[in-house]
Design brief:
Layout (H helix, E strand, L loop, with lengths): L2 H22 L5 H17 L3 H8 L10
Helix pairs in contact: 1-2, 1-3
Length: 67
């Protein structure tokens, strides 16, 4: 698995988790989904992604998007 795929899978899981928690636990969990979406937009413009840095430190091999 490459860094790019790991980040995208992680982001998708966070979005789905936020949506499910907002429907089943409390509506304010939608903030997690909003945060993930804003972080993805910011990473797209700047190339800075904290999740990519963490996965890179864990030894996930690099891809093409996050270097």
């Amino acid at each position: 698995m490459t860094l790019d795929r790991a980040v995208m899978i992680f982001a998708g899981c966070v979005v789905l988790l936020g949506a499910v928690l907002s429907l089943t636990v409390h509506p304010w969990w939608i903030a997690l989904t909003i945060f993930a979406g804003l972080n993805m937009i910011q990473a797209g413009f700047t190339g800075f992604c904290p999740a990519a840095m963490i996965f890179k430190a864990l030894g996930v091999r690099p891809g093409t998007a996050f270097k």
